[in-house]
Amino acid sequence: MPFTHIDCFSGPGGICTGLHAAGFETKVAVEYVKSCVETYSANHPEVHVIHSDIRDVQDSQVLPHTPEGGIDLVTSGMPCETFSTAGNTSRSFYDSRQFLFREGIRFAKMTNAKLLLFENVPAITTKTVAKDSDTLIVNVLKQELQENGYGNFIEVVLNAHDFGVPQKRNRFFILASRFPDWKLSAPVPAMERQDVNVGDAFAGLPDVVPNSGEERTEYSGRESEYSALLKDDSFWRRKPSGKLTYQMPMKHRACTLRRFELLRQGESLKDLFSRYEGEERAALQSQRILPKKMFIKRNYRLRPDEPSPTVTSHCLDEFVHPTSNRALTVRECARLQSFPDSYDFCGGPYIVPHIERTVQDKYEQIGDAVPPLLAYAWGVTISEILGEHEHDR
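Structure (tokenized):
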């Protein structure tokens, strides 16, 4: 019998995808953003997906879909905006979002979960409950785990690149159990996968021409071990696909294309501001090749021989293709996040204004997700923990 899972703050399904590959059966998912719900449901039709603010979800909506003996694992990757330090002003906000970890605990107690896994940015460990307070959010979380019977826990920061994901992405995790005598452990880095890079990620993806509107639907060029894994639907326990999707070019203004031409691999907009000064910079700005304001995390041209920086919800603006003068396609971003090629990002539009928080476009969904290969590593480790205590099921 497979181990069971409830997916809180599910997004488009990154955690579920990795856990499913590891043999878990996700019973319930909860997500607020409609476009994420649409993507999740299309890829995981067997899961009961609740489209709601998680705080409004009642026991009666969840328990009919869970085993009588309780759930094996609840995962809770609450929104990270209020914790992130990556150029995000919302870290200065102190509101209800920073206490949404309580919903993960509530769901764990509701379903008598054996294990509870929290995921967030490492900066959560330095965020205080209020501007003038010394009390850290993460310490409140730990205290409430103790108070609710989940005092046996470990905490760890993992880099997704250590688990075969072609990007440098650090994430903070807490794994907690209601059994005080269970020995908990975190995934051990997969040494054979640590050298995966952007070139490996994009292997087999044909180039596209910006502004052409021509989507490429056939693979071409070389294969890599990594690209073969993302096409291996048997590994992911998914129905065979075979067709390339979402390799569609974006539209760019002529001045933006000219800016991309100036970028060398490993350079970003910040480097262009350093290279061009005085009258030369002013001339480029007058032609709108350079913007009036310098954004630190913008227009980074990826290096094919290195992993990418962290993929975020702003990945459309943050990355430039290693060799072509264009932004990345949806499929290329999905490759950097380790979503299988058969994954259908059908929810929402390609692009939506970033200030609209009730909808996430395809790029935002991908950037905010947990990399499936990192979730898979957790799934393997947690399966081992649960297997050692099969008598407690």
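The longest strand covers residues 152-159. DSSP finds 15 helices and nine strands in the chain.
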